[in-house]
């Protein structure tokens, strides 16, 4: 087994800075290109290459057909090579701004970043964005590779100008080392060995620096941490807990604690394949067996019993937003932290960071590739470490609950202790007692549909029927609520998200009081309606889709809003210049344009009964 240390690194920078060419050259110089691949490269260079028939090393990395035809890197391509001193896994990450999320993916596991700069162009906005992201992702060792020096006649002044500009820009970052190297990846200058064309460069070549850099992989002396990725049951006699050691060391006999349950036990064995170990450390993939039969599941954390990490449910975090749809505070997402998956919400966007200056700017939303500082609230407490001290236990991703797309990558700075200390106050008179007093089953009846569809009309008629039956009710109407509770909110997407969040919380309190509450809001987004539904117990939330064609809504147009929106006098109007996402599984689906109001209300009453 090869025991040489492993270094993961990425190449990043702007488009056409030569990232793929550099990695291809590294593979070639490290004798990591097989003869058949070299033969194929010769053919590909003739067909797709940009070097007039000479070997085009970029094609070793640009594996996707689209990349070869366009001459750009789209996906993250990983390659393995080794030298006499080290093993390497290198990620070739995209340079285009729309693929910044792919670059962040490559950076998340890397220990070093090679930031390429075209000697002719100098630092570009995407170069700065990538430098900021690798700093944010915890990479502390940088190689500033000033490439294409052959196109500026290996001019020392130009090289120094770029190095000084990067030094000024990166002063605020917590880089431990920045090594600048003048390169020609295409011709091999300073890649594997020093170049006679840069006699003014006294430093090492790129490969020599990669071989000798001391990364200081600490944490081996820190307290033990291992997220459980899988519970391995092979028959009735074996139950092991599989994961990769994120921090510290573990030995048989060590006392450990399981989080979040805080159950304690001792390590019986450390199992790897068909063997056992006397010790395991950071980065080792192992299976632990324990002396006691205790409940341990995927997402739990096995830690040193005498030094467990903190647990919290609210954090301040830095967030890279990776979705076309902007981030709005208040929307629910799935949060995956190490192997733990919980529900969560960004409760506040504290600021957005300017990619060039690092200035903190006020923001109500985060757009694609923007970086912000946010407050994050989780559905339950989780064990964590700040990202600065442990990337595995402090890093998380955000997942859209409907599409299951990864939409954000975040890093925990610290817990918001003041929020964690708050607990829901248990009361002796509960929802069941209040409901029995009123002789009814509390419900939230949520009317959704376009403006003019008839939501308020139907809610009003339904309340009259229920009132006649002696029921205790209340209507929360979209227009009425904006006169008081939500008068500070406009009609932007961010304000609409907050509008629904507030009203859903009020409706929940009213149901807890034993009432039947009717909510008549356009509530155009499925994610916000799901946020509302998730606040209630099973059966308490009834979604009523008032399905009226927009033509009919415009014909009614009781407030003249559609006419104003068509003239451009009313921005962000649902159905005109802002979308409406119809419910997929509403409990009651009403065709109010085809059915009389009384018939529609009778359908709702049947559902209630």
Note the gap between the termini.
70 Å
CATH fold descriptor of the largest domain: Rossmann fold
Helix content: 25-40%
- What percentage of the residues does DSSP assign to strands (E)? 25-35%
CATH class of the largest domain, named Alpha Beta
Which structural class best describes the helix and strand composition?
Answer: alpha/beta
Query: Helix tally?
Result: 17
Tell me the name of the CATH homologous superfamily of the largest domain. P-loop containing nucleotide triphosphate hydrolases
Please, what is the oligomeric state?
single chain
Mean pLDDT: 85
Task: Tell me the number of structural domains.
Answer: 4
Q: Could you tell me the radius of gyration in angstroms? A: 30 Å
Poorly predicted runs? 63-68, 70-74
Biggest sheet descriptor: 8 strands, antiparallel
